[in-house]
Amino acid sequence: MPAYPLRAAFAGVLLxxxxxxxxxxxxxxxxxxxxxxxxxxxxxxxxxxxxxxxxIDGDVxxxxxxxxxxxxxxxxxxxPPNRNAPAYVTGPVKVLYHPDxxxxxxIDSTGRRRLRNGLAGGAALILICLGGYVAWFASRWDGTASxxxx
Length: 150
Prior knowledge:
This protein is α+β, with helices and mostly antiparallel strands. 41% of the residues lie in helices and 30% in strands.
């Protein structure tokens, strides 16, 4: 069986560079999300009513969520369909809001964002390590069936 150390080294470098690019993308997305949510506050909200909305897919129930700001104002907003909100009245919801515009509140999905970024970062790290190993192994290959030179 012929050995192709140059192709293996190229594959290793390609995996390594792909992992670096992926890690850079994950870092950029996390940084942009952090900047976007800078200054936003968290609050505990409650589903006060389930509203019916007509969509292209048919009727869906969307929660009307109410929460109290740090200034003591009571605010309510309608969450978009198919979000992480309980589908029952009095269900608890974590809310993010900007102090200057609390009516633009959103459901807090910090856990999902962190999980997504962590999994993508882990995949990038695996690609970097695998690519480095493959390139290193190919650079030490002596052309024999027994493997790299000792």
